[in-house]
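Subject: Sanity check before I submit

Could someone independently write out the structure tokens for this chain? I want to compare against mine line by line before I put it in a report. The sequence has 91 residues.
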Amino acid sequence: MMETKLTPIRFPTDLLTELDKYVGDGNRSKFIIDATRKELHRLKQRKVIRNVAGIFNEKDYPELKTSEDASNWVRKMREESEARRRDLFGE
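---
Independent answer below. Compare away.
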């Protein structure tokens, strides 16, 4: 397993005091690490969404014109996938 190097960072004292009220001094680092991972994941998702914005052209997909059409399409894809799974595994 790869060793994780920990690096001290600086926080305003008032922020750490408030954090300790909710997570406790012993859980401070874990909370900050988990929160940072979640926020980085969210930021990466937003970047991807911005990068792909506009690639979907409604004229190219008339079968998805309404939300009902999209729901029907998803249902059909799931049914086809389930049928393939049954065929493959003999269920």
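---
OP: Matches mine. For the report I'm noting this point. The mean pLDDT is 90.
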